[in-house]
Amino acid sequence: MSDGQVWSNSQLKKALPDHLPLSSADRAPAAFRPHEERWEELVNNALSPSRSNSLHSRGLVESRGRGLHQLTSSCGKDETHISSDQSRQPHETVYRLPPHEVGQEYQFSELSVPEGDGDLLYEDAYQRRLETIVEEVIEREGPVYLDLVVERVARAHGKQKAGRIIQERVVSAIPAECRRAYDGNRLVLFPKHSSPHMIVPLRPSRSDWRSHRDIPLIELASLALPGIRSKKSTEDILAHYSKAFKLARLRQPTRVRFEEAIAIARSSVEAET
User: Fold this and answer.
1) 18, exposed or middle or buried, with CB in 10 Å at 0-12, 13-18, 19+?
2) Which of 47, 43, 1 lies closest to 22 in space, CA to CA?
């Protein structure tokens, strides 16, 4: 874009792979666009005029029509870049240990939207109210997966399914300062005063509020800490997970997730000993 020309989203996404060192994590499927990769989703977000933390909002890019963009005259060619730091996989990081393994009970978001206001969700004039709602969910339930936030918002507005438009509206309402990290293909959103680099004490919760599949790995990891400190085997710790979540048997995808959480906990304990 430093050539001063107008670029479309598709033109940029064709050109960027030749200039960016895309990792396997960047190449993973996007969260909400199954036919795109994660880095393409980041490009879409960076170029969305409705997002409070986009290049448009920061005054670095100007719109030249729907899906068309141009660098502002004050923006030098080396002032912008798309970072893939948020695509770092959980097991590649050593996390700090929490002061205790069990946290407070999980707080479910009881959102209140007046009856008849559900369709306001699609209106641009509703953006500020939507930002307040999204922030409330993140602060109450975070760290929380983005898809759960989307679900909470959709249900509060009387929508049984969250389609592409609702998903994009929620993404655009995420606070700019919100810390984020990828957990596999799912984006985790962190509340204020919470670090993506520390294991989160497990928050006991009702299964109808969130199942073990909806607990981020850095929180699941805390359940393994006592066993690791007691030098128990991975199989013994897995049995502890099964008992904690009342699972008669571990299906392979669940076993893999639990093993990832155990690996996070083990590497963190070893790093502090």
Assistant:
1) exposed
2) 43
As a 3-state breakdown, the chain gives helix, strand, coil percent values, each rounded to 5, of 40, 10, 50
Structural contact between residues 142 and 151, judged by C-beta atoms closer than 8 angstroms: no
Q: Which residue has the tokens 């392979």?
A: 252
Residue of 257, 215, 262, 254 lying closest to 234 (CA atoms): 262
> What is the residue type of 179?
R
**Confidence (pLDDT) at 79:** 30
CA–CA distances in Å: residue 82 to residues 59, 123, 193: 15, 29, 25
Give the pLDDT of residue 259: 97
Which segments of the chain have a pLDDT < 70? Answer: 1-6, 32-34, 50-53, 57-58, 64-67, 73-92
DSSP string for 55-67? TTTTTSEEE-STT
Q: Give the pLDDT confidence score for residue 55 in this predicted structure.
A: 79
**Burial profile 66-103: b = 16 or more Cβ within 10 angstroms, e = fewer:** eeebbbeeebeeeeeebebeebebbeeeebebbeebee
CA distance 30 to 13: 14
Query: What is residue 120's predicted lDDT score, i.e. its pLDDT?
Result: 95
- pLDDT, tens digit, 9 for 90 and up, residues 10-23: 778 888 887 787 87
Closest CA to 50 of 122, 150, 142, 148: 122
Give Cβ neighbours of residue 222 (< 8 Å, ≥ 6 apart). Answer: 98, 101, 102, 103, 199, 200, 201, 202, 265
Here the tokens at position 116 are 């008849």
